[in-house]
């Protein structure tokens, strides 16, 4: 499967921005039919996105579409427009819980069948914290078909909560939004899917982007949303294991292999146990080793 380190948004009503995003080094490009497109422009955007998917078939494995919320008036029209062009995946905003994700699965199955696509081939990432009900349902997605990743957002949630801002005086997120980040990480782990960090809004702030990407990767996140191609190299680097990390992981694996049946091993002044071994194997597996 395509790597999932960097997920770059491109407004679905802008040919120039979709072309620029598609030509970038983003692992996944998301043509956006939701927040980036005004109500009046949504029909035009659907037509443009469908055309872009068809004309960029060589990149299709990394081309996704963010549709509008399933509880609104646009989602089915979005799917009817883009599914014949076979996007690799759908970004699903504002799910209220498992029932919404399962309903999307049913819709996708019907559209795949109508288009002659392989059933189940269209994957899904959930934007799983944008509504209060979403926050309360974060652990409900275990076993839902198609879901491969889960991300979170702070802006829509702030609006739903009636907040005037979601940042504290030092510029960091307030507690409720840090909770959303933590719940997304836990919910994704429970569902066995990749947790993806939300955007860093200032696309000229490379230092801040790098700091956050490194921090959330250490916590368990596997990738990050982006709003500008200039952010992609920083994100890809931050979510790629370094040669030193890979060497250290291999050393741990070799150490346990040389001592079969041992539960704990002293190594470089620390005690290593089976969770350390599991993390080392997972790190190597993330790069296909």
TrEMBL record:
Cofactors (names): Mg(2+)
Domain of life: Bacteria
Keywords: Lyase, Magnesium, Metal-binding
InterPro entries: Aldolase/citrate-lyase_domain (IPR005000), Citrate_lyase_beta/mcl1/mcl2 (IPR011206), Pyrv/PenolPyrv_kinase-like_dom (IPR015813), Pyrv_kinase-like_dom_sf (IPR040442)
TM ranges: none
Alphabetized GO MF terms: lyase activity
Residue ranges occupied by any HpcH/HpaI aldolase/citrate lyase domain in the UniProt entry: 5-229
Signal sequence, renumbered to the chain: none
Protein name: HpcH/HpaI aldolase/citrate lyase family protein
């Amino acid at each position: 499967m395509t790597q999932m380190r960097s997920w770059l948004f491109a407004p679905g009503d802008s040919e120039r921005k979709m072309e620029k995003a598609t030509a970038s080094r983003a692992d996944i490009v998301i043509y956006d039919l939701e927040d980036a497109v005004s109500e009046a422009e949504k029909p035009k955007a659907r037509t443009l996105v469908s055309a872009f998917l068809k004309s960029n078939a060589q990149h299709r494995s990394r081309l996704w579409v963010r549709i509008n919320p399933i509880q609104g008036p646009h989602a089915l029209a979005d799917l009817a427009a883009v599914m014949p062009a076979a996007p690799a995946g759908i970004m699903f905003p504002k799910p209220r819980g498992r029932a919404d994700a399962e309903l999307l699965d049913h819709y996708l199955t019907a559209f795949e069948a109508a288009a002659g696509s392989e059933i189940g081939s269209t994957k899904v990432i959930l934007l799983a914290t944008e509504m209060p009900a979403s926050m309360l349902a974060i652990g409900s997605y275990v076993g839902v078909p198609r879901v491969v990743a889960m991300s979170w957002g702070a802006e829509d949630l702030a609006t739903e909560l009636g907040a005037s801002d979601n940042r504290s005086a030092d510029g960091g997120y307030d507690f409720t939004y840090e909770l959303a980040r933590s719940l997304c990480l836990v919910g994704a782990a429970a569902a066995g899917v990749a947790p993806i960090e939300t955007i860093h809004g200032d696309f000229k702030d490379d230092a801040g982007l790098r700091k956050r990407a490194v921090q959330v990767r250490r916590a368990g996140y596997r990738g990050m949303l982006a709003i500008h191609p200039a952010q992609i190299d920083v994100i890809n680097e931050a979510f790629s294991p370094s040669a030193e990390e890979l060497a250290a992981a291999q050393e741990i694996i070799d150490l346990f292999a040389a001592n079969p049946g041992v539960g704990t091993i002293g190594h470089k002044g620390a005690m290593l146990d089976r969770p350390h071994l599991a993390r080392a194997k997972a790190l190597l597996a993330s790069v296909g080793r």
